C-alpha cells in the first residue's frame, strides 16, 4: 500500500467539545454546522470521513471508467 500524500490529514483532530448525543426526532443543525467553517476545512473533514470509511486503498488514486456500448434493436 502506498503511503498517504502529505496533505495535512495526519494533523486533523476531532473537536470533542462539539460532539453530542441526540435523538433522531430532535431538530437538526447539521447544515449550519457544516456551512460555518471555511471551505478548505470542510473539504479536509470530508476527506477524513472518506478515508475513515473506505481507508487508503488503490481506489483513492482514482476509479477506472468503463464504457459499454449497447446496440439498439429496431422494431
Short overview:
The protein has 75 residues and is mainly α. The protein has 2 helices and no strands.
Features:
75 residues; 0% strand; mainly alpha; 2 helices; single chain
Please, could you describe this protein's structure?
The protein has 75 residues and is an all-alpha fold. It has a domain at 9-56. 29% of the residues lie in helices and 0% in strands. The chain has helices spanning 30-35, 39-54. The model has no long low-confidence stretch (mean pLDDT 78).
Order of helices and strands: HH
**Rg measurement, Å:** 20 Å
Give the helix/strand class: mainly alpha
Give the fraction of residues assigned to helices. Answer: 25-40%
Low-confidence stretches: none
Distance between the termini: 52 Å
Task: Report the mean per-residue pLDDT as an integer.
Answer: 78
Shape: extended
SS field, number of helical segments: 2
The proportion of strand residues reads under 5%
How does the major sheet shape up? none
Q: Number of DSSP strands?
A: 0
How are the SSEs ordered, and which strands pair?
Blueprint lengths: L29 H6 L3 H16 L21
